[in-house]
Write a structure and sequence with these properties.
By secondary structure, the chain is an all-alpha fold. The protein has 5 helices and no strands. The structure holds protoporphyrin IX containing FE (2 copies).
């Protein structure tokens, strides 16, 4: 069960700290850090690593039958935390330019985060144990059935967007590293 908004508050706090650091860099350098600079590059890579962890860890824990390390709810909280903070770091990396494939990758990132919030809302409507298993009975059967249908519909949209996002991100990284970093 996902109780309260703890992970959202932690994510918000992390974004405030990152904004502070970003402000300090702008203050020192008197310019908006470009995506291929040390700061812009580092924050893009770190943010992307967090996004990769978001894509993989929760699914691995959910599907692993043998290794039941940690509560599912804690993994989902971590998923949501990294799923907000990672994209925020990547957004700072863009230096507010959204041309071509990199711009499309940013749009996909934004869509998956918004979709995540919708999924979180539906997910919390279904009563569960601490380990994420659904419990019958607390809601009316009709409402429970509807929430389950919505959740599975949501999965069929959310998962392909994630796959498209990572394909486009890897192509962007290859092209950006080749043209903007190694050819310099
Ligand atoms: C989902 C993750 C990412 C997104 C959404 C993203 C998005 C962007 C955007 C919008 C730009 C600006 C493009 C423009 O000038 O119009 C950019 C530039 C750049 N990105 Fe990323 N990026 C991501 C991850 C990464 C990673 C992990 C790396 C490094 C391995 C990277 C390397 C670069 C470089 C070198 C540039 C500068 C390109 C240039 O100066 O022409 N990006 N990125
Ligand atoms: C980089 C951003 C994100 C990516 C790549 C991502 C990816 C995924 C993937 C692949 C799944 C399917 C897990 C599975 O069933 O195996 C998932 C589920 C989920 N995500 Fe995200 N997500 C992101 C951000 C978010 C955010 C920001 C939230 C909430 C605010 C969120 C909430 C959820 C919820 C509630 C589920 C459903 C869990 C379940 O049915 O067991 N995600 N996400």
């Amino acid at each position: 069960m996902l109780r309260g908004y703890k992970e959202l508050w932690f994510a918000f706090l992390a974004c405030v700290l990152i904004t502070g650091l970003y402000g300090a860099v702008i203050f020192w350098t008197k310019a908006i850090p470009v995506a291929s600079d040390l700061f812009g590059h580092s924050i893009g890579i770190l943010g992307f690593i967090l996004m990769l962890l978001t894509e993989t860890l929760y699914s691995l824990r959910k599907r692993s039958r043998s290794a039941a390390w940690g509560k599912m709810s804690a993994w989902l909280q971590f998923h949501i935390f990294t799923g907000i903070v990672g994209p925020y770091m990547v957004l700072i990396h863009t230096s507010w330019k959204f041309n071509g494939l990199a711009g499309a990758t940013t749009l996909l990132t934004l869509i998956i985060v918004v979709s995540g919030f919708i999924g979180r809302y539906i997910f919390t409507r279904i009563p569960r144990t601490l380990d994420g298993l659904e419990i019958e009975g607390t809601l009316s059967q009709e409402a429970l059935k509807r929430a389950r249908q919505l959740m599975s519909l949501w999965h069929t949209v959310h998962i392909p967007i994630g796959v498209a996002l990572f394909i486009s991100a890897f192509i962007h990284m290859g092209a950006a590293l080749y043209y903007a970093t190694f050819l310099k």
